[in-house]
Structures are given as structure tokens and as C-alpha cells.
């Protein structure tokens, strides 16, 4: 069987990747600012609900109900979608799903397709597979577009370009769109609007994910903010939706829980600007050909684990990322997967399904078990318990080594982070201490070796970069 | 060889997940909000809100503009002095109009949301997407207090669009910026 593209080929283990990320102070600054903002706003959006805990309990129970009768509900969904003129496809793994989508694009003679942000298609590496097959997929969500144009990788579930600040985004847009633009968020958004408008108006095929699928009505639900989703779901003639088999809710009524839990947990809004719901094909309104691709890709294996299966309740809100102290310091890319942060630490290794894979096996150790993720999770996934459970599996698969013991204490992330911060401060201080371009004494940690020799002063680069380059 | 469908279903059954107790819906399904809360919450999204008694009079604001309107909006809404654009309209014509006028199916006070379902006075989905300005008329009796109440009033198999303020993005440093691909201006007339 082909490897599961949920992890990026060649990614180092979490501790190795994190060491590099921790050294990137710009990244940490961008992340601290962004997650700090969203944490506060989420707390306010949740705080105004008097029945939040009851909603969370209902969310948990509805999803557990889905997992307990997934076969029946999937068949029901297939029947309702088919009855309304849609076509349902099933895919065991990423390779099979990608082939289905590529064949559908080819059948429409589409060389270019527009895409709505979707975790499922990112998980299976659909864009790369389409590209290899001669079909170019254009990401239309602003953050996805930033990642795509920057030849970059995502670092967050909701805001894949969260690691980029406005001036970095400006640079990417100027370079790739060939336009002059300021670094004001409003101007950058306007640049994206102009860039994508023509593509929306001419695309014949769109590809989307799904936040929810309602088994009894066959309705598919997509939540978004920018209107790029509506463009893709409304204008093209053909719509292909790719979703994990666990994205179901049994009834239309169940959505009343998730349409309250998800927006407040993810974008910290009472409601996101746009939510689209469609069922099969509606004559005279929207795409007249609709394909639904249901993907397993490690989910049924996850379902077998009585402790780990709760990860399949996840509605991809990203609240757990935003509160995670490890994520805030290491950034999303250290996790080597489209699913970073606490949910990534428990979902990715299960989807990979091989604890002998050192990268996947290192992920459950990417946590300090502080429990903040469980507190905010709108479907009450007990992430710390699953982490502990998966750590035991990883240790068992590997044999207990010094590395696994060291990794078990994610405290090193904090130690490293604060060491870099101290070093950074020491660096700026060093410039004042320098006389005639030489430094004779440095505060710790530089002092460790200024004691033994004189060193040239760091001129403009950060102390950390300079230190690394010069320590020999 | 088993088909993908058969194999996936077999794997699910093989996982033998035990059945669970029925869902406890201990949350508030009623809500208490009305017109006032709705108006306040729509305005929070930086949409423009007016409470009016006379729709035609309020529509004076459209004078001199080229406005799309579904063919089945109330005849009195089609006031003089506006160039009304009716279906069939191409994507380009919609894109080049000055705005669109519609009614709605349901509104939600708790969240400041309007919901379109393509029935009377709303047209197909592209109508409220491509024009840069959307003027939506909401009758007081269409306002549901809560999300649960609103969903109950809706028919899930219709194409539904839930709209909460103008299009927006928070993708740059998580700062909210209004106006990306959908209408950049949303104006709501609440008819009391
Ligand atoms: S695990 Fe919970 S908090 Fe994290 S993304 Fe999923 S639903 Fe949200």
C-alpha cells in the first residue's frame, strides 16, 4: 500500500523539527500575536453562552452516536444524495480518492479547477496528484492562497498561513501576482479578490470539502467567511466534494448544535459570515453535476481503537491549536502534517497507523499534557488521555530508548524557547557592550565562551543566528 | 476483490463500536431574542441595519442604480427611478450590476443571521453573491430567536445560504477585514 500523505514525506521527527522552529523567532512572534488574539476573542464568544457546556455534551454525544452506527448512516447518506441527483464515490485511501477526483476532472476536460479550503483534500495530497495528472487546482481561501503562492506548507487548520505576518504576505503577493500592494490587511484582501475574480467566473469544476453531511436529508454543509466558498459551490457546472467518512451528523436537527459550537470555537464569531447547504442537485440553481467522494484513509483503523477513536469526533475548529503552549512555540509545520497541534498529535499517528514510523510515533510526545486543549474542545475530545494512550503504544513499538524518555517530557520545548529568548535579548545587549567591533564579555549564555576568546560583534543579524554560525 | 464501499463498510462493522445512549439535549432550544437583538447583532458584523415601516419609501436609497431583483419580489418594491434587472441574467450581468434586492426565508436573532432558501423573493444563489451590494428585507415574523428555532423552520433540501454580515476574512494575523469575494456591503431592512 502507498504511504499515507497525511504526513509530509521526509519530515523529521517532532523534536528535530521543533528544534529548528524554536530557533525561528519571527515565526514565534507571528504565532504568539495571532493565537493570543484569537484566544481572547474565543473566550468572549463562548462566555456569552449560558448553555455552552450542554452544547458540548450534546456535540460529543451526537458524534459518538455517529461513530457507533457509521455504516448505517453512510448508506443512508448515499441513498439521500443519490435520490437528489448526486453521485457518491467511496475511496479506501488517498491514492484511490485522488484517482477518482482526477478522472472526474478529466471527464469534464478541466485543466484548471477552483478549490474551497478543505482539510480532507489537503490530507490526501489532492493538489499534487491533480497537478501530476495535468489539472491545476487553484486555492481560493485567502490563507490557502498565501500558502500556495508562497510554495509553502500549512501550519494551522483554520488559518494555514498563520505563520506569515502582513509584510511577508505582501512580499508573496507582489512577487506572484505582479501587483503593487501595501501591507494593510484590507489591501491584501482586495488584491486576492481581484486576482481570483476571473477564475471564479470562468471555472467549470470546483472542489470542496464538507464540514458536515446530514445523513437523513443528504445535505452537505460548508462554513466559510470570504465568499470564495459560495463562488465555488454556486458558479461552476460541476462540484466535487471530498469528505472523511466521519463528517456525518444523523439528522438536520443535530446541526443546531454544531452551527453554534463551530463558529464560536474556530473564528470566535457568533456565526461565520457564510454557511452554504445543498442537497444533491437543484435544477436551475448551482452546479448541475454533483459528486461526493467519501474517504476512509485510516479512519476505520482509528475507529477500532476504543480510546483513540474519539479523535474522529473532531470538527476541525482549531481551538486546541490556539491554546496549546507547545504549538505556540514550535509552530504548525514541526508536526510534519496538515493536522498540527494537539489534534494533530493524536489524529495523525492514528491515520498513519504505524507506530514504527518514527515521525508519526514522535507526535504524541509533542505535548506537555497541560489539558488546555480538552477544556476548549467543543466536542470534548480528551486529548491528554489519548496522548498518554498513544505514547504507551509508541514506546511499546519502539522499545524504551533514551530518546523516547527525553521526548516524553515536552518541557524541553519551553526550556529551549526561553533559552532562545534570553539569547536574543543578550544579542541586542551585546551591541551596546561592543567596543571597536569586539566583544570581551557577554551575558549568559554567550559568556560561556567569550570567557575563552574574543568574538566579533553581531552587526545586524540576530544574536541567535550569529551565535549558531560562529560557534564553530 | 471487494469494492471500496464493501471494504469500508466491513471495516466499520469489524471495529464493533458499542451503541451509545440517546443524545441529551440539555441546551437552550428556545432563545428569547427578538427584533432588537437581531438588529444589534447584524450591526455588530458591520452590516447596515434599519427598522422601517414602509418598504417602498426605504427603497428610495436605490434611486439611479442598476439593481438585480428576483421576478417574484412584491411588486411595490420595484419603485420608480431604479433600473431593475431581472432574470435571465448572465454571470457578467450580475457581476456588473450595482446591487441586489431580496427578501429572506428566516432570520436568527441570537446570531444576527439571515437565511436565504431560494424561495419567493430570493432567486437563485448567484443573485446574492456576485453583486457587490446586497439589500435584504426581513419581516419581523421571519425572525427566529435561536439557531435551533431557525433550523426547524427551514427545509434542508433547499439550497440554503446563511449570511452573517458582509463577506470577511481573518486570515491575515487574525484581523477581521470586511469585504472579500461576497458582497462587500450588506444592508438589512427590518419591516416592523
Ligand atoms: S480536537 Fe476539538 S478543539 Fe481541536 S480542532 Fe478538533 S474539535 Fe477543535
Structure description:
Chain B: Residues 91-191 form the LUD domain. Chain B: This is Lactate utilization protein C. Chain B: Pfam families: LUD_dom. The complex is a heterodimer of chains A (472) and B (192). By secondary structure, chain A is an alpha/beta fold. Helices cover 51% and strands 11% of the residues of chain A. In chain A, the strands form 3 sheets. Chain A has a 6-stranded parallel sheet, with helices on both faces. A 4-stranded mixed sheet of chain A has the order 8-5-6-9. In chain A, helix 1 (14-22) packs parallel to helix 21 (411-433). The radius of gyration of chain A is 24 Å and the shape is globular. Residues 427-472 of chain A have low confidence and may be disordered. By secondary structure, chain B is of the alpha/beta class. Chain B has a domain at 27-54 and 103-191: Rossmann fold (3-Layer(aba) Sandwich), CATH 3.40.50.10420. Chain B is built from 5 helices and 12 strands. In chain B, the strands form 3 sheets. Chain B has a 6-stranded parallel sheet, covered by helices on one side. A 4-stranded mixed sheet of chain B has the order 8-5-6-9. In chain B, a hairpin with a 2-residue loop joins strand 10 and strand 11. Chains A and B meet through helix 2, helix 3, helix 4, helix 8 and helix 10 of A and helix 1, helix 4, helix 5, strand 9 and strand 10 of B. Strand 9 (274-279) of chain A pairs antiparallel with strand 9 of chain B. Residues 265, 314-320, 343, 376-379, 381 of chain A line the site of iron/sulfur cluster.
Amino acid at each position: 500500500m502507498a504511504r499515507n500523505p497525511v504526513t509530509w514525506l521526509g519530515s523529521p521527527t517532532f523534536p528535530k523539527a521543533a528544534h529548528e522552529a524554536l530557533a525561528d523567532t519571527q515565526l514565534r512572534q507571528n504565532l504568539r500575536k495571532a493565537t493570543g488574539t484569537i484566544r481572547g476573542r474565543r473566550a468572549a464568544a463562548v462566555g456569552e453562552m449560558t448553555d455552552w457546556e450542554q452544547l458540548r455534551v450534546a456535540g460529543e454525544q451526537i458524534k459518538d452516536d455517529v461513530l457507533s452506527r457509521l455504516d448505517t448512516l453512510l448508506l443512508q447518506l448515499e441513498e439521500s444524495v443519490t435520490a437528489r441527483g448526486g453521485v457518491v464515490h467511496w475511496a479506501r485511501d488517498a491514492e484511490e480518492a485522488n484517482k477518482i477526483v482526477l478522472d472526474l476532472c478529466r471527464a469534464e476536460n478541466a485543466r484548471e479547477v477552483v478549490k474551497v479550503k478543505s482539510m480532507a483534500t489537503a490530507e490526501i495530497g489532492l493538489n499534487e496528484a491533480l497537478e501530476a495528472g495535468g489539472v491545476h487546482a487553484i486555492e481560493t481561501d485567502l490563507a490557502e492562497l498565501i500558502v500556495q503562492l508562497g510554495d509553502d506548507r500549512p501550519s494551522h487548520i483554520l488559518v494555514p498561513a498563520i505563520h506569515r505576518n502582513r509584510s511577508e504576505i505582501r512580499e508573496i503577493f507582489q512577487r506572484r501576482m505582479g501587483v503593487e500592494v501595501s501591507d494593510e490587511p484590507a489591501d491584501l484582501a482586495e488584491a486576492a479578490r481581484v486576482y481570483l475574480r476571473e477564475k471564479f467566473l470562468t471555472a467549470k469544476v470546483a472542489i470542496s470539502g464538507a464540514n458536515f453531511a446530514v445523513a437523513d436529508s443528504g445535505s452537505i454543509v460548508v462554513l466559510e467567511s470570504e465568499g470564495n466558498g459560495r463562488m465555488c459551490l454556486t458558479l461552476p457546472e460541476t462540484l466535487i466534494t471530498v469528505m472523511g467518512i466521519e463528517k456525518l451528523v444523523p439528522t438536520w436537527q443535530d446541526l443546531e448544535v454544531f452551527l453554534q459550537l463551530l463558529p464560536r470555537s474556530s473564528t470566535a464569531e457568533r456565526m461565520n459570515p457564510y454557511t452554504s447547504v445543498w442537497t444533491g442537485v437543484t435544477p436551475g440553481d448551482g452546479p448541475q453535476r454533483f459528486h461526493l467522494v467519501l474517504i476512509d484513509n485510516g479512519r476505520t483503523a482509528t475507529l477500532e481503537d476504543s480510546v483513540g477513536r474519539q479523535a474522529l469526533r473532531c470538527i476541525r475548529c482549531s481551538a486546541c491549536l490556539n491554546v496549546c503552549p507547545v504549538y505556540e512555540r514550535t509552530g504548525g509545520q514541526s508536526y510534519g502534517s496538515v493536522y498540527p497541534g494537539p489534534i494533530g498529535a493524536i489524529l495523525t499517528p492514528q491515520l498513519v497507523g504505524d507506530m514504527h514510523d518514527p515521525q508519526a510515533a514522535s507526535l504524541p510526545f509533542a505535548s506537555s499534557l497541560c489539558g488546555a486543549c480538552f477544556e476548549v474542545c467543543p466536542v470534548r475530545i480528551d486529548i491528554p488521555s489519548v496522548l498518554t494512550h498513544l505514547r504507551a503504544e509508541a514506546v511499546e513499538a519502539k522499545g524504551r530508548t533514551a530518546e523516547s524518555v527525553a521526548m516524553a517530557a515536552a518541557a524541553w520545548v519551553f526550556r529551549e524557547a526561553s533559552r532562545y529568548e534570553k539569547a536574543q535579548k543578550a544579542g541586542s545587549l551585546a551591541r551596546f557592550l561592543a567596543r571597536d567591533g569586539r566583544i570581551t564579555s557577554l551575558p549568559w549564555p554567550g559568556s560561556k565562551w567569550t570567557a575563552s576568546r574574543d568574538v566579533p560583534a553581531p552587526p545586524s543579524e540576530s544574536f541567535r543566528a550569529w551565535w549558531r554560525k560562529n560557534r564553530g | 476483490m471487494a469494492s471500496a464501499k464493501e471494504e469500508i463498510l466491513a471495516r466499520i462493522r469489524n471495529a464493533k463500536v458499542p451503541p451509545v445512549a440517546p443524545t441529551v439535549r440539555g441546551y437552550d432550544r428556545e432563545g428569547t431574542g427578538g427584533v432588537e437583538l437581531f438588529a444589534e447583532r447584524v450591526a455588530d458584523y458591520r452590516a447596515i441595519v434599519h427598522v422601517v415601516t414602509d418598504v417602498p419609501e426605504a427603497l428610495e436609497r436605490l434611486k439611479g442604480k442598476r439593481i438585480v431583483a428576483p421576478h417574484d419580489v412584491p411588486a411595490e418594491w420595484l419603485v420608480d427611478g431604479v433600473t431593475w434587472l431581472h432574470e435571465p441574467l448572465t454571470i457578467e450581468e450580475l457581476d456588473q450590476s450595482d446591487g441586489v434586492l431580496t427578501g429572506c426565508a428566516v432570520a436568527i436573532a441570537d446570531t444576527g443571521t439571515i437565511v436565504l432558501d431560494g424561495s419567493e423573493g430570493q432567486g437563485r444563489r448567484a443573485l446574492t453573491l456576485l453583486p457587490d451590494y446586497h439589500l435584504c428585507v426581513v419581516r419581523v415574523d421571519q425572525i427566529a430567536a435561536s439557531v435551533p428555532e431557525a433550523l426547524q423552520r427551514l427545509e434542508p433540501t433547499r439550497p440554503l445560504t446563511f449570511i452573517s454580515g458582509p463577506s470577511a476574512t481573518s486570515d491575515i494575523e487574525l484581523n477581521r477585514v470586511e469585504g472579500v469575494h461576497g458582497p462587500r456591503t450588506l444592508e438589512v431592512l427590518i419591516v416592523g
